[in-house]
Amino acid sequence: MVRAATEHDIPELVRLRALLFDDLGGDFFNPANPADEWREALVRVFKQKLTEPDCLILVVDGDTGLAACGIGTIEQWFPGPHSRNGRIGHVIGMVTDPTYRRRGHNRAIMLGLLDWFRDRDAVRVDLTASLEAEPLYRQLGFSDHPDPLLCWKP
């Protein structure tokens, strides 16, 4: 059911990522005058990331395209007493096409990503959860983040 994405899946991955931004809404994710260059840039990044060992993109096939996808990445941060090796995982872009929701695809992808993070010795995995998905992630062992989180947008 869950498989690693290939370059052939890139158009569908772009479509699902756009659905994610539509779901998130607001001026930050859907600015008033978005430039479509982000889609072209996303294609280039997907092509690159599909070849890198510290990135895994998992997908579930639907009838005519992808039903769902999720991205896992690992970054090398600086080790410390709270992070013995500094390998921090990130879950990005968990999205299911509305037609395929409530069928366990998100859970299956997340379980695959968590196994991948364990195999690569990630000491922590971070994600940003929607209110709708938060109960699933908490059920899978996610908890409140220990760091206060702020962002800066140039």
Describe the structure.
This protein is globular. It has a five-stranded mixed β-sheet with strand order 1-2-3-4-5. The termini are far apart. It is built from five helices and five strands. With 154 residues, it is of the alpha+beta class. The longest helix is centred in the first third of the chain and has 15 residues, at 10-24. α4 (105-119) links the parallel β4 and β5 (124-127). The relative contact order is 0.15. 34% of the residues lie in helices and 23% in strands. The chain has helices at residues 10-24, 26-29, 37-49, 105-119, 134-139, and strands spanning 2-4, 55-61, 66-76, 87-96, 124-127. The model has no long low-confidence stretch (mean pLDDT 89).
The class by helix and strand makeup works out as: alpha+beta
Largest beta sheet, briefly? 5 strands, mixed
Distance between the termini: 41 Å
The ordered string of helix (H) and strand (E) elements is: EHHHEEEHEH
Radius of gyration: 16 Å
Record field, number of beta strands: 5
The proportion of strand residues reads 15-25%
